[in-house]
Each structure stands twice: as structure tokens, then as C-alpha cells.
Amino acid sequence: MTETGPDQTVVEFEHVYLVLDDKPVLRDVSFRLARAETKVIVGASSSGKSVLLKTALGLFRPDSGRVAVFGRDITGLREEELYPIRQRIGMVFQEGALFDSMTVYGNVAYVFQEDRALPAEEEEERVRRALRFVGLEEAIEKLPSELSGGMRRRVAIARAFVGEPALMLYDSPTAGLDPVTAQSIITLIVKLGDLEDVSGLVVTHRLQDAGVIADYFYDRESEGLLPAHSNGRDYDTKTSVLVLREGQVVFDGARDEMFRSRDAYIRRFIG
Prior knowledge:
With about 270 residues, the protein is of the alpha/beta class. Helices cover about 35% and strands about 25% of the residues.
């Protein structure tokens, strides 16, 4: 498999069309995601955002066009050929999708139990590191039912991150959360990108999520987010925004450029 170098593209869609149940869901979608870049995908409901993520993961195959991940064309790959590529991808599903009967440890370690067996000590070390990253090591023996909604979402991020992926896919990670909890999840997404150089595709209905990811960076010293552009600071957050409308890309670029767009749909969408 082709490795992704410092300046290479992690995900690339070229003129992708996808029809589901006789309905066009993705229509001539083209974009690139660079190494260590985060691209926030926004749009109205049923605009194709979640389908785009699943297509990047190889769960849907385009009817035409090309999808490449880590420099390899995955469009026509068989399931067994997709396996080593998916091992380098972490997926955070809507609502977290934890296993109710498993402890936090079991949920986060699930990937190792399934297909990447590690010595017990190394497995525990990796699980604890992932939980420390999301601030939940103390909950390691709890069941999902004992956690708040925000805590469950953080466990889902730890589960996706424990395999040390090069690419993270987030499907509406703040959906259904109160503003304070949603902010904590977005902080984790920024932290993961800034400290681990992980590329990310983030699907969200919340424009404020895109704003935080684009305008803030994670500061190790304060262990929190700081404005990327203030007090003479000019930090490159490596963030772009892609707007979908009925399966078509109507914008792909910097958030500030989106707000300056005169496109009628984008003006209505950003309100």
C-alpha cells in the first residue's frame, strides 16, 4: 500500500456519483483532504454528509468516479483488500454506538479483541492512554449506562483513536449534546488534530462547530483552546469547510471565504 507522505493527500474524491434506492445521493463530488488537515462537512439534512463519510470508509461504492485513501484507489477493492486501509481509520459514529454490555475498557479495547491482538499489558497501556487523552481514565470499569451523554461520546472518540489512526471520521459528534458538552467534544477533535497530526473529516449540522475548529488551536500549556489569530498570533489551524447541497459540493475552502460567499444557498444556510 502506498504510504502517505508529509505533503500527500489522505482522502481524494474525483467526480463521485452515488445512487441509493434510485435516488442520487452524491453528485459529482470532488475534494481533497491533506495530511493533518481537518475538513468540516456541513449542509442541510439529507444532503449526503454521512453517506460521504461511509464512502470514504469503503462502505458504499460509487456508481462512477474515484475515491482514493492514503494514496490508494479504493473504488473497486474487495472487502479483504479494504481491511488494511480501514485499520488506519478511526470512525466515531452518531450517538457514539457503544456496546451497552461492555465496560468502558471493553469498548475501547474492542478493536484489539477483534483483529489486532496485543499482549495484555500493551493493550491496557494503549487503552489507558486513549482514555487519558479524552479525560476518562477513571471511568475505565464503568458501563455506558453509568456515563453521561458527553462521556459516552468521549469514550467513542477514545475507541476510534486507540488504534492510532492516521485519519479520523466523525459523524455528527455533537448531535444531541448541550452546548457546553458539545464544546468539550470539539475541543477533543482539535486536540487530536493538533497534538497527533491526525487528518479528520467532521460531519456536523452545527456551523459553530466549524467555527471553533477553524478559529482555535489546542495549547499544551493551558490544556485548552486558544484563538488562532489574536495578540499577534497567526496559527494555521489547517481547517477547511465543505458545504453540500443535495449531494453536490457548493463550497470547499476556508471558513472566512464561505462567510464572504455571495452564493444564495450558502447565504441562506449560514443565516
